[in-house]
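Researcher: I'd like a structural prediction for the single chain below. Treat it as a standalone chain; there are no partners to consider.
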Amino acid sequence: MKFKDLKNILFLDIETVSIYPTFDQLNELEKSLWQKKTRFFSSKREYLTGDELSASYIMRAGIYAEFAKVVCITVAYIKTEDKQYEKMRLKSFYGDNEKELLQEFKELMDTYYFDPNTHYLSGHNIKEFDVPFLCRRMLINEINLPKLFNIRGKKPWQIAYFLDTLEMWRFGDLKNYTSLNLLATCLGIASPKDDIDGSQVSHVYHEEHDVDRIVKYCEKDVKTTVQVLLKMSSLPLIEEEKIESLTWEE
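Model: Treating it as a single chain, here is the predicted structure.
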């Protein structure tokens, strides 16, 4: 990654939660469909039942777009001038109204990040999680996909504008998964996991009703992803005083 390209990268991360707090709140059809889903991640490839079924919903439903929703999208971009960092700016779209925050995010994409020849999207595991999840939830909410998300049937070289830090770290080793926390630690970058982690987001949302805490967690992840990409590109990190969030200025 060249310095001159930094201003054309949109960094992003999402936080998702189960649509309902508990399994019992699903209707009978949804319960049956979730039970069938559990067979794919059951160690014995059997359907879960009883308490195991309810526990699996609490632990896992938040990562499946058919049973979950987006509660926060954080984006970041770098302002550069004369080969110097001017600022890293963050902005979060968040709240209970998923359709509204997805629409706001789409408008940002349509306005500023729409050209696959000059614009880039970056995040950690965005190719396997964030982007597919957003695409599915946009379709469910009857929102047309942003141009850079129109990736069905595309060849790998046609979506070279995805700068996925997990994929970059794999170096072709497809069986390897490295968390953002571990990768940042290996590279000497401060860990973003100083409060909650992804497994706790649904609890914080449904039980504590603390969306602001989720937003702050998401913004920490995005800041870390920016620094990781810079480190992997042999570029200097951005100093903390040059990082600002526009989220809390409204």
